[in-house]
Amino acid sequence: WARLLRSLGHTVKISEEYNNENVDCLVALHAYRSASSVDKFRFLYPKRPLVVALTGTDIYKFQASHPEIVLRSMTLADRLVCLHDAVHLDIPKEFKPKLHVCRQFAAPLKGKRQPRSRTFDVCVVGHLREEKDPMRAAYASRSVPKESKLRVTHLGKALDEGWGRQARTEMESNSRYVWRGEVSYAAVRREYRLTHLMVISSVMEGGANVVSEAAVAGVPIVASGIAGNVGLLGADHPGLYKVQDTADLARVLTRCEQDPAFMRELTKRSKQLAKQLTPAKERDAWRKVLAGLKAKR
């Protein structure tokens, strides 16, 4: 976003916390985690523009567990930014006029995709933590037909040793699952080129960037039916499965492997979504966020 805002002609400084700087506008990432910065800026400059970006944890976790903090940040903000089209359904209605959807741009692959021929590859991209339900695709792969060539490749580090143990134990007992740990961005892009599809199995998302990346890469997407995924992919996306339902995910993955027409439809959906994820569209969305906001000194 800093690069994008600079492209719109703004001077941008990035910091983890607002420290009373004399700036024309504050863009705060996280209503909950940036609450103290939001409070300080609004106290010092009650008439200057304040933008708060709502994350998945703000909307689907802290809004319930710490409502007074999240709602105060939302109240103090002049604009609220979110990453998918369904956020308005999960915030109080009085905040909807402030809300702007800014879908995240992702860079396209260079050259054509070339999925592997000997295996039917499913990639999972994301760190191993509770919100990601990271082992769901691995568990689903256990119950696909015996003749299946399905293989799950997981890219992402374990955020604690417990998740690392689970992934290693799964590899020992499940020949269809490979955990590669933390890898470079270039390695992720190579996997998008070689995989047949991507699974995003999260139980909580504010609008995952990996969905944008996969769509722009032309990768078919299978996703848990949470608001953050539905808000990006659409309620009619054929690759949705029931949240944390291993059997339902196995059913969808088996259909992907066995039904070429279904895969063509998922590919088509990714390409359609990609048209909404261009740099120009994200820049225009932010231009609308900032339109009419004027710093008063």
UniProtKB/TrEMBL annotation:
Keyword Glycosyltransferase attached: yes
Superkingdom per UniProt: Eukaryota
Domain Glycosyl transferase family: 115-272
InterPro entries recorded: Glyco_trans_1 (IPR001296), Glycosyltransferase_G1 (IPR052622), Glycosyltransferase_put (IPR027627)
Organism encoding this protein: Pyramimonas obovata
GO MF, one annotated term: glycosyltransferase activity
Name of protein: Glycosyl transferase family 1 domain-containing protein
PANTHER family to which the protein is assigned, alphabetical: GLYCOSYLTRANSFERASE 1 DOMAIN-CONTAINING PROTEIN 1, PTHR46660
Annotated keywords: Glycosyltransferase, Transferase
Keyword Hydrolase part of the UniProt annotation: no
